[in-house]
Amino acid sequence: MIGEKVIWVATLPSTNDFVKENWQRLLHGTVVVAEYQTAGKGRYNRYWHSPEGGLWFSILFKPRKQIKPTFFTKICSVAIVKALSLTEVDTRIKWPNDIYCEGKKLAGILSESVFEENTLKAVIVGIGINVNNTIPQELRDKAISLHEISTKVYDTRIILRLLLKYINQLLKRYSNEPEALTRIWKGLLIQKEGQMITFKLNDVIKTGKIVKIDDEKIILEVENQQMQLSSLEILEPRLI
Ligand code: BTN
After folding, report:
1. Which pLDDT tens digit goes with each residue over 207-217?
2. Are residues 153 and 179 in the same domain?
């Protein structure tokens, strides 16, 4: 069970680093939460602002069978959307796994994998949710917190419990049917196949039609040619 063991500490540099350094001695399903992180990490080596009031935690998955690590990331992003909908906050996933509300980022996921001799040994899924924390001025046009959306003050422990409940439910339901999970995840994405999106390529803003979306890439048709897009380049989705 995910969350059977929860290690809740006041502070750590990064919960992901802690789990990555200790994955061998920690049990499958261990969750490590820090009330604040001093060196929170985002994707692409970005700094992740993690003051008190947010929910910053990492989950250790030790898969018993070989499965794509992105399976666990999708489980978590879908679980976040479902759990937050119970708190009456309507969110969507910005490809591949950012959680958005009102056009701003509410939560992010950083997945890291441990392979030994080509065998997947562990997946560490780090989740950061802006809950009651204040968003710094310089991020206010891009990021939002649950408190800002609803003016409520949330109990991060209740949100964590709810999330873990959904993660366990989704794991049980989709472990043998990962394609069905992908369909659910795709349904929650802001970006849709057939949609026009704008993106930046070598500092030039371009528009293209989404031909196909999967875990690792988005294929676009731009000026009658197909090209692959990475998440860094997406600016905004725009419906035709
Ligand atoms: C992103 O969107 O760039 C991913 C952000 C992930 C942040 C979380 S907070 C808990 C865990 N520990 C970290 O250092 N990072 C992840």
Report:
1. 899 999 988 88
2. yes
